[in-house]
Amino acid sequence: MLLIRLRARIRETTSTSDSGFAIGAVVALMAVSILMVALMSSSVVYAIGFSTATRAGIQAQGSAEAGIAAATVGLENGTCSGVGGVYQSVAGQIPVYRAVVYVPGGGGWVQGCPAAGNTNVRIVSNGTAANGGVSGQRGNDSKTLESILGPSTQPTQIAATGPAVYAYSSSNFGGSGTLVSVDGSSPKVMISTGDVNCNGASSGASDLVVKNGNLTMSGSCSVTGNVWTSGALTVNGGVSIGGNAVANSISIPSGTIRGSAWSASTTSLSGGSSNINGNLTSTTTTFNSGGVIGGNVWNYGTITFDWGSKVIGNATGKSILYTNRPSTLGSYTQIAAGPGASPYAQPSTPSVPNWVDYNYDATAWTGFTPVVLPAGTCSITTLRAAVTTIAGGKGLIDARRCTNGLTLTGSDQLAISNDIAIFANTITIGNSGGIVPSAPARVWLINPDATANGTPTCASGESFSVSGAPVFKNAAGTIWDSVMMYSPCDINISTGVNFRGQVFAGSATINGGASIGYVAIGLPGVDLSTGATGGSGSTTTTRSVVSTRNYTGG
Q1: CA atoms of 344 and 364, how far apart (whole Å)
Q2: Ranges in the chain, pLDDT < 50
Q3: How far apart are the first and last CA of the chain?
Q4: What is the model's pLDDT at position 174?
Q5: What tens digit of pLDDT does each residue of 197-213 get?
Q6: DSSP conformational letter for 163
Q7: pLDDT at residue 228, rounded to an integer
Q8: Quick check: 409 and 435 in contact, CB under 8 A?
Q9: Rounded to whole angstroms, what are the CA distances from 295 to 227, 281, 292, 380?
Q10: Which residues contact 529 (CB under 8 A, 6 or more apart)?
């Protein structure tokens, strides 16, 4: 278009008397136009080159960072020696990098893998752009990064194990508290030794397990799940078991097992308000003036019926005896030699853990900053200063020398922002006192057991009490996860306490409308589901970043 106009201009000017002057002007104009076109083309080429160079620089930087990340993960997982200290991308894959590991040596750095975790390491990573620059702009096609990592640490990985409430002894066990499931798991109450007399309104226990002892349920005691006891189970006073029952013997003067029942010896039902809604497997079964079994009976010995007795389903046994009639029986199959194994599968008994002697040991809390409080009275100011010292990290507060132990009463509220464990010989939390996290956190409240004998040893002066509607909520007022309470003594939880977590104690009392939302938390170094050591630790380590820079050698 420009040339057409120029030709037209030439024709116009040559038709005049001063055509020579006009031709010169046109030629000059053409030269300027050609120069402008050349300059514009050069600018476009430069812009394209600059743009591709910028893109290449970003890609190369990202590739070098990917190499640093790959080498760091390899060091933490212990794979350095297996790759000879060189981590590189697979041929043909993006990002493209080659990262080399160095260790201190010879007054500087030498290529190799760390023999131990207590030394710094150096990673030099070269990254290559997937799309290089064009038009001579190749300077950003590769980037090199250097990262210095500190010594490795192995963070504490605390296995979330154990029941909702564990009490080694049945002494003082009971109360009218409630256990509720938070995440769909089944809150279990486990008693290791002693006979248990449950006569409070413990209506929230999903499962109740008595490892070594008898269990008597009466009054307003109620279990929504299953019951296991190694000894005799007595269900009286209209008590309801929401699930199944497994015991050495079962006696129901007045009450209901809504699921099925298994008795290793005798089973007796008395009166019209004695019920097993499901099936019964027993050695001998006796009805006294009533009793109803809603399912079938599998009996290895004699079934004895009395006035008003009912088996809605079928009965199979060695023999049958009627002391009074009428009785209701769907059908009866007699096997003189005794029937074989019951067709009704008995639910497996949960494993009740051994007692865990747990004393203060800072080395078990890797990744937690230990703070030892001074001897004497430790006020809320003392505790807040300790939290400030931790500076937002995980904290381990040793309050064993505090003469008043851990005391959060009145309006004393301890604000935290991360996980915290507090060891104290006495723990008293009440009224409106409590612990308030600003971010999701776990709290361990621990009376130490310093005597390693496999049984709870409550030392003189030790105690653990939580009462009076204390605060276990976040800043928004929401009940938060998670609180672990441990003591070789009696943990007494009462009067409107509401928290999420678990209890592991010499004995436990949950009373006065207290409510525990079951969340397993555990303790480092042990498996609270079995009582065995272990249950913590990690196969990986972590290394902090000391410095990172773009590197040009030297």
Answers
A1: 46
A2: 1-10, 13-17, 38-39, 44-45, 203, 535-539
A3: 58
A4: 59
A5: 887 655 456 788 999 99
A6: -
A7: 96
A8: no
A9: 19, 11, 9, 60
A10: 161, 162, 163, 351, 353, 535
72 phi/psi in degrees, rounded to 5: -65, -45
Cα–Cα–Cα angle for 194, 200, 202, nearest 5°?
90
Residue 361 CA to residue 325 CA, distance in Å, equals 68
**Can you state the angle between helices 2-14 and 19-77, rounded to 10 degrees?**
170
Quick one: DSSP state of residue 38? H
pLDDT of amino acid 485: 94
Beta-bridge mates of residue 217: 198, 235
CA Rg, the chain, in Å?
A: 39
Alpha-carbon torsion angle 522, 526, 529, 530, nearest 10:
-170
Task: Compute CA distances 457 → 103, 353, 357, 405, 524, whole Å.
Answer: 49, 17, 8, 18, 20
Match 């990202």 to its residue by tokens.
62
> What are the two backbone dihedrals, phi and then psi, of residue 305, each rounded to the nearest 5 degrees?
-100, 150
Which strand (E) or helix (H) includes residue 209?
strand 207-212
- The answer to whether 543 and 75 are in contact (CB under 8 A) is yes
Which residues share a beta bridge with 532? Answer: 527
Answer yes or no: are the C-beta atoms of 508 and 524 closer than 8 Å.
Answer: no
Rounded-to-integer distance, Cα 263 and Cα 281, Å: 6
Three-state secondary structure string covering 299-343: ECCEEEECCCCEEEEEEEECEEEECCCCCEEEEEEECCCCCCCCC
CA angle (38 as vertex; 34, 40 as ends), nearest 5: 115
Structure pTM? 0.68
Q: Which two tokens stand for residue 338?
A: 């005794």
β-partners of residue 246 are 228, 262
pLDDT reported for residue 539 = 47
Q: Specify the pLDDT at position 45.
A: 47
Size of the chain in residues: 554
DSSP state of 355: P
